[in-house]
Specification:
By secondary structure, the chain is an alpha+beta fold. It has one domain: ApbE-like domains (T-fold). Strands 2-3-7-8-11-16-17-18 form an eight-stranded antiparallel β-sheet, covered by helices on one side. The protein has a three-stranded antiparallel β-sheet with strand order 1-9-10, with no helix packed on it. It is globular and about 65 Å long.
Length: 324
Amino acid sequence: MTIHLRAALALLPTLALATTPGLIRVEGSVDAMGTGFSIVAYGADRGRLQSAVEQGLEEARRLDEMLSNYKPDSEWSRMNRQAGDRPFPASAELFDLLSACVEYSRQSEGAFDISVGPLMKLWGFYKGTGHLPHRAEIRGAMGLVGYRNIQLDASHHWVRFAKTGVELDPGGIGKGYAVDRIAQILKDEGVKQALVSGGGSSIYAIGAPPDEPGWKADIKNPRDPSRAVASVLLKDESMSTSGSYEKFFRAEGRLFSHIMDPRSGFPAQGMLSTSVITPKTIDSEAWAKPYYILGPHWTAQHKQKDFRVFFCEDKPGTRCEWLQ
């Protein structure tokens, strides 16, 4: 069975080639963490703008060396190999990110959980060979899943897994973290108008493009991604989308997506896509999947007041609406 890949958002807006007098447009992209990162930026000083974009792309490469679970020599991969046997001395940056992940897990009642690595491999989403595993295999993998298996020693920045075989997956957090880091570099370099995209599904908008009130992003119709079900204008905020149509396979007459419910060991059901708008991309990406898994009722009771959430539920007629 083939994994189908589709972009979650039409994130890079169509912009006129002619820009506001005195402003220059610079674009750049790089492949990192198994996806593509892109930057569109405007400024008056070409040299400074180009330098800022290059620094942003270099940050994506640096984080690829730290967070990729596809690179055997990355810090993340070395941690996965070692922390089940002995304490792993993590860098301060990785330790802080893992601490944030554990907090997201606590707040989401386990719906966000980076320890889903064994499940993602079992279901075939790690290498793109999706298949339906036996229930006994799922039960076995579930014995290795659970954020409480991640033991963090803040005094030494040590990471230890409670069991051999625990494996962390950065897929639910890495892009959002990288987008925020890139955006901060651009801001530090004086860029006031830019759009940073991580894999098409997580973006951050700095300011607004010339002569526009914000950066326009379309939320795709999950049943027909060639059409949009909603459009938003982003300004100094982020948006991330999780959708069942991004990676999936069909078996026994059902669709199984890559959005794994770590509490059950099965792909989450009942939702088609969830888009989350927050001040930081790490938050929008981290919360997109728990909101998808837990649904509108739980989300309405627990989300932060400044978060905006758009749900497309798996119901006849594709019910899509903003959470009130």
